[in-house]
Write a structure and sequence with these properties.
By secondary structure, this protein is mostly beta strands. 5% of the residues lie in helices and 38% in strands. It contains one helix and 28 strands. The protein is globular.
Length: 372
């Protein structure tokens, strides 16, 4: 969205056979419950610490609204001044792997498949919106898309797997524009707009956390909107060819209000967060939940106390998630119905990994990993 100074994405999972699947599911559920329980617990007597964000020195003052966590050790950051960083040792050291000659670009979203392959999105009007891809950990980059339509402004990117992905632009000629790749981001094409509902006047996506376009499974994708009379979530079950749209209870009616991020732990259960990003404005009803794939949304009974720009489910958990924003981090352990603040540091986006690691990043080079 043009007015915002601006997991995600769901993790890409590989299907497995039935052998041993029950044991793996039980182990994953236990791990997810344990992480949520320790997060919710107070500090132990005798000086023990409750789980907390541990800041990592990124060595830069860039604002990182793009984050892709691969594992406890490996994560990628994308931010202002054309900056891309990568760590392979849990944040002890960050390597500047920015594409050359792009200091004027604003990176707002990044999708990494592992420690070597990643796709990063730059936002902005016209040719400022670009996509770059690396296959060697950022040693070299290839520009695979440059927007040539002055009316387009790309906000977010997501991948269903290592080959199939989408990027979304604010409305062009009255409809959100969807860009598609089938080769891991090497090439892109604009999808037909016939299956896209009409946009409201002033409606757009918020390029705030890389989570205004998220996927779950091989074909389902959701698009979050704001800036118009109603804050909405659009859903496609065919990789962006046709869409349905639903109003959410998150306040709208102003260019600074709406749904800023969504997260789905499967094709049915979702959480939306947002509010009003202006620091002097209240953000009541800043979270909502869906149990039917985004067809309907219910307001959180106890929402986060302020605007939140990023959200993610805790790994292997069916009920626990984290939401972040400039004034803090909130935890839910009941699927998004109630939230409580567990940290007051400023973060723009958050992401968790299958090996039970969670990362967050934001302004002034801030990046942290959840420590227990």
């Amino acid at each position: 969205m043009r007015g915002l100074g601006k997991t995600r994405r769901t993790r890409h999972t590989r299907s497995t056979g039935r052998t041993g699947s029950t044991r793996r599911l039980v182990t994953a559920a236990v791990c997810g419950f344990a992480l949520a329980a320790t997060l919710a617990a107070p500090a132990q007597a005798g000086g023990g610490k409750a789980p907390h964000w541990e800041l990592k020195d990124s060595g830069t003052d860039a604002r990182f609204r793009g984050l892709s966590a691969v594992s406890r050790n490996t994560a990628w950051l994308a931010g202002s001044k054309g900056t891309v960083l990568r760590t392979a040792d849990g944040g002890k050291n960050w390597r500047n792997v920015s594409p050359p000659g792009v200091a004027e670009l604003e990176f707002r979203d990044i999708e990494a498949f592992d420690g070597r392959r990643a796709v990063v999105l730059a936002i902005g009007e016209g040719e400022a919106s670009r996509v770059f891809r690396t296959e060697d950990g950022g040693a070299t980059w290839t520009e695979s898309f440059r927007n040539t339509d002055a009316k387009a402004f790309y906000d977010c990117i997501t991948f269903f797997d290592s080959r199939h992905g989408l990027a979304m632009s604010d409305p062009v000629d009255g409809k959100f524009r969807i860009l598609s790749t089938r080769d891991g981001g090497r090439s892109w094409k604009v999808l037909p707009s016939a299956g896209m509902p009409a946009a409201q006047t002033g409606e757009a996506g918020f390029a705030a956390s890389g989570q205004c376009l998220v996927s779950s499974g091989p074909r389902d994708v959701w698009l979050a909107t704001g800036g118009a009379a109603r804050a909405r979530v659009l859903h496609s079950s065919d990789r962006g060819l046709t869409w349905t749209v639903t109003d959410t209870p998150i306040p709208a009616g102003d260019p600074a209000r709406g749904v800023f991020a969504v997260a789905f732990r499967d094709r049915t259960h979702g959480i939306a967060v947002g509010g009003d990003y202006r620091a002097d404005q209240a953000s009541p009803q800043a979270a909502a939940t869906s149990r039917d794939g985004g067809r309907t949304w219910a307001t959180a009974g106890t929402p986060p106390p302020a605007y939140r720009s990023g959200v993610t489910w805790l790994p292997h958990s069916r009920t626990s998630a984290l939401a972040v924003g400039p004034t803090g981090t909130d935890l839910t352990t009941d699927g998004g119905r109630t939230w409580r603040t567990v940290d007051t540091g400023s973060y723009d986006t958050v992401d968790c990994t299958p090996d039970r690691a969670c990362w967050a990043s934001g302004e002034k080079g801030r990046v942290a990993r959840l420590e227990r």
